[in-house]
Amino acid sequence: MSNQNGRLTWKEALTGQMDPALAEEIDAFETQMELRRQGKIEEKVFAELRLRRGAYGQRYDNGRRHDGRRSREIPFPHPDLLKGPDTKWEAPGMVRVKIPYGGLNARQLETLADLAEEYSDAILHVTTRQDFQLHFVSLDDTPDLQRRLAAVGITTREACGNSVRNVTACPLAGICRHQAFDVTGYADQTARYFLGHRDVQDFGRKFKISFSGCNDQPCALAFIHDVGVVARARQVNGQEQRGFAVYVGGGLGAIPHQAQLLEEFVPVEELLPLIQAIARIFARYGEKKNRNRARLKFLVADWGIDRFREAVRQERRSLPEDPHWTDWLDKIPAYKEAGLPAPVAPNAPHPGEAYERWLSTNVYYQRQEGFAAVTIALPLGDITADQLRRLADVVRRYTRDTIRTTVEQNLLLRWVHTADLPALYRDLEAIHLHQPGAQTIIDVTACPGTDTCKLGIASSRGLAAELRRRLVAKNLQYNEAVRDIRIKISGCFNSCGQHTIADIGFFGSSRNVNGYRVPHFQLLLGGTRDQNAAGFGQALAAIPSRRVPDVVDHLLTLYMENRRQGESFREFITRTGKRAIKETLKPFTTVPDHRTAPDFYRDWADSREFTIGDIGVGECAGEVVSLAEFGIAAAEGLYFEAQLALDEGQIAQAEELARQAMLSAAQALIKIENPDIADTPQAILQEFKTRFYDTELFFDPYAKGKFARYLFDAFKPDRPPVNESLALQRIEEAGLFIEAAHACHARLLENRTAPAKPLPDWLKV
Fold first, then answer.
1. In Å, what is the CA distance from 442 to each residue of 127, 225, 377, 447, 648?
2. According to the model, what pLDDT value does residue 131 have?
3. In sequence order, which residues have a C-beta less than 8 Å from that of residue 121 and are 6 or more positions away?
4. Does the 353-430 domain belong in CATH 3.30.70.3340?
5. pTM given for the model
6. pLDDT at residue 393 above 80?
7. Residues 655 and 722 sit within 8 Å (Cβ to Cβ)
8. Using an 8 Å Cβ cutoff, are 746 and 514 in contact?
9. What is the mean pLDDT of residues 510-526?
10. Do the beta carbons of residue 525 and residue 508 sit within 8 Å?
């Protein structure tokens, strides 16, 4: 409605600049918020509604509150805060902004900067899926924020929730020296087609699509997506025909799955109907009740690729024709980019030695002669609102107003005249965006971890910052031997930091040591980013968080001193063997006494004790605890032996060892209450079910017993025949089950023992 002077309100003015469908969606969300306040929409339903509009909950137990107060986790929105129509939700959350293929222009950068200052904490975060995230945003502000984004062509719709998430693509698309063709337009049009599409509204979980222009590079990581699309070009009657190889069923998470080839060559006009058919099969047959198995990867694994392929082909044949399948193809040429007609500052003075170092790590010379792409490295994926706003001016000056986000949590400035590189460096230096080392060992990837994520166990960002600081101090980004090694960190097992595909990966966990909770990280080695993420690393050891930088230094030294000519880090790990490497890690796994090294009991970037109160163990509990710890340690040993067996090609033995590892961990917990439990699998399974599953003692707040089901599935009488894929899955499940056993054991200690206090000096001998 217009104001009293007859002028348009800001809301009406923005609505005029928006896609009508987005404007209608945002209005509907405001109505749903009001109905939730009035108690007319259940919280469970409203949670999915807000997630589908990009609004996430956030944790607050790390001291980061606008008002300076420290509190435990607050749900978003907290039901207790809903007290009437005028009530505001006081617990801010995170808003994810969808950026298809990572493409942005200067005006959009400025809008994001404005919103970060006005509604958030003036910091924007680039994710591993090319999105932007704003934290500490009040839910009441999200409709206004969404309108201002929509006015510049950006949406938060379906950035979260059980939906088609952001469609990612290689940020080098169109300029890559290895590409089959530019996938930019195909990725963007796919995102547009499925945004709000009726066939993608009934998923049990999220659905991720990625576009890669080639087979070999890791720019788009197609093989870890629900649908991975890889460009192909072939000759037909002397003419080039464009198409795609389509892979399905990939994903990381707790149990990583490699995507499998669905179709070798899909003509471009068949791309959308094929993905639509995949989505319909997933919506119809994918798991709905058990969210832990509700991803497409589990359906593909359960059915097998041949059955899944036939179902998709049959579904495709039954689809009614849709003109939108092909009417977008005429728009593809419009996605072609080019540089400015001439350099804007070709005679700028040489910036010096630092510029040369920056050139060696941050500049990619395009397939188009005379042009380069420049990576703007963002440590931890963060950029301030002021930097982003000033970067918009840089984008306008040196390009035709385009920039892209990357899956490495950086920004990529494309189509820069090589003659402009010195001047561009000076301009980036002025806004502190000139850090060298992009896509080298110092460019550590990390998920939000305990900073803002409710699932975070350990501080992935704190650790990443410390690792970066130490690696930079040694100038390893310029060391040819190790510069290409990639380190990725997740705050928990869910792999949002993509630790599974790193050369050196870590995910957060915890251990109970002498009655104290101690932050740990599981070390994974052997992952592969190349070839669109072609291989997964495996867990090797649990390392106390404070020793992780020392472990990284140890592994790099071991590699540099013992590698063969031309041998990559992954090849070195394979040749040396996990057993030998694990032996060298033993000195790093011990935790010193709390009184002599209290820092070991705090997480990175957190001055507080890792757990509330000091947990002690009484004498009566000592013997019982030792039994449990002994059993879990035995499980760790079996788990490691299973990995070695798999490496040696002993598939059946590897699967059996993984099963026995889970059984050993379960028996260890049972012995806390029943030391005389029989050793038969049937007795252990029944006791575990009765004492830990039915009572939910084994359940953590988020997994809700899924790790327990790994044990039950492993001992079902109708288990499928063992193959390499199943053995690998069983090993991954065993590792997670053992982690859950450690956590359960620690919870039992916390609940059953009183705090232990250090002896006063006058009582010490």
1. 17, 26, 10, 16, 33
2. 97
3. 66, 135, 136
4. yes
5. 0.83
6. yes
7. yes
8. no
9. 88
10. no
Q: For the segment 528-539, what is each residue's pLDDT rounded down to a tens digit?
A: 888 877 788 888
Q: How many residues does the chain have?
A: 765
Percentages helix, strand, coil for the chain, rounded to the nearest 5? 45, 15, 40
Superfamily of domain 441-614: Sulfite Reductase Hemoprotein, domain 1 (3.30.413.10)
In one-letter notation, the amino acid at residue 716 is: K
Could you tell me how far CA 448 lies from the centroid of its own chain?
9
**Is 16-150 CATH 1.10.287?**
no
- pLDDT bin (cut points 50, 70, 90) of residue 671 is confident
Q: How far is C-alpha 691 from the chain's CA centre?
A: 34
Q: Are 103 and 189 in contact (CB under 8 A)?
A: no
Closest CA to 137 of 157, 161, 112: 112
**Beta bridge pairs of residue 210:** 168, 228
| pLDDT tens sequence across 566-581 | 999 999 999 999 899 9
Q: What is the pLDDT of residues 255-311, one digit of tens each?
A: 889 999 999 999 999 999 999 999 999 999 999 888 878 899 999 999 999 999 999
Q: Which string of DSSP letters, residue by residue, matches 316-342?
A: HHHSPP-GGGTTTGGGGGGG-----SS
Q: Is the pLDDT of residue 678 over 80?
A: no
Pairwise CA distance, residues 421 & 737, whole Å:
52
**DSSP-assigned states of every residue in 609-676:** -SSSS-B---HHHHHHHHHHHHHHHHHHHHHHHHHHHHHTT-HHHHHHHHHHHHHHHHHHHHHHH-TT
> The tokens of 28 are what?
């509907």
**CA-wise closest residue to 497 among 446, 449, 538:** 446
DSSP state of 484: T
Of residues 251 and 6, more confidently modeled: 251
Q: Which residue has the tokens 């054991």?
A: 745
**Alpha helices (runs of H) in 648-753, residue ranges in sequence order:** 651-673, 681-688, 706-714, 724-752
Distance CA 424, CA 375 (A): 12
Q: Where are the domains of the chain?
A: 16-150, 176-335, 353-430, 441-614, 616-765
The token pair at 57 is 């909950």
Looking at residue 752, its pLDDT comes to 56
Which range is least confidently modeled, 102-116, 541-555, 615-629? Answer: 615-629
Q: Give the architecture-level CATH label for domain 616-765.
A: Up-down Bundle (1.20)
Beta strands, E only, 138-288: 168-169, 209-212, 227-236, 239-248, 260-267
Residue closest to 227 by CA, chosen among 250, 197, 202, 255: 250
First-last CA distance in the chain: 81
Can you tell me the mean pLDDT for 112-137? 95
pLDDT of 13 over the 80 cut: no
Amino acid at 388: L
CATH architecture of 176-335: 2-Layer Sandwich (3.30)
Residue 28 CA to its chain's centroid (Å): 30
Which pLDDT score, from 0 to 100, does residue 626 have?
Answer: 45
Instruction: Give pLDDT, residue 418.
Output: 98
Range list of H helices, 158-270: 184-194
Q: How far apart are CA 583 and CA 672, in angstroms?
A: 30
Q: What is the CA radius of gyration of the chain?
A: 27
Share of the chain above pLDDT 70, in %: 88
Q: How far is CA 628 from the centre of its chain?
A: 33
CA–CA distance from 411 to each of 69, 89, 153, 531, 593 (Å)?
Answer: 34, 33, 19, 22, 44
- What is the distance between the alpha carbons of residues 458 and 510, in angstroms, rounded to a whole number? 8
pLDDT value, residue 623: 32
Residue pair 259/215 in contact (Cβ under 8 Å)? The answer is no
Torsion on CA atoms 352, 353, 357, 360, rounded to nearest 10: 70
CB distance 54 to 97 below 8 Å:
yes
**130 DSSP assignment:** S
Contacts of 3 by beta carbon, 8 Å cutoff, 6+ apart: 9
